[in-house]
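INFO batch 0412 | record 1 of 1 | parsing
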Amino acid sequence: MIVWTGWGILTVVIAAIGGAGGSGIGVALGGPSDSANLGTVIGLLLAGVAIWFVGERLNRPVPGFDQATGQPVLYRDRHRLFWVPMQYFGPIVGLAALGVGVGMLF
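INFO prediction complete | emitting tokens
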């Protein structure tokens, strides 16, 4: 069961597109063995970077004013996956890419 709030599900979508897309490009360029894994590593690394920036953009506070008092407040959106803010999955996906890369060597 996947638990998310807001657009947190984009984390899974971006990581899947990055991994599968990189693997597909690797197979198209050089064959089904090492190039597919290298494509997966590159795709996951790019997906990790994309997840970080998308999460930072979606979770940044927006200044506004309270309707009742007129005091300035910061409105925060919550875009999370498994109760973790979306942008923190960027380094996790990057570590997964390194794990795939190390697994490719052995």
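INFO post-check: Strands lie at 4-5, 62-65, 72-75, 80-81, 84-85.
INFO record closed
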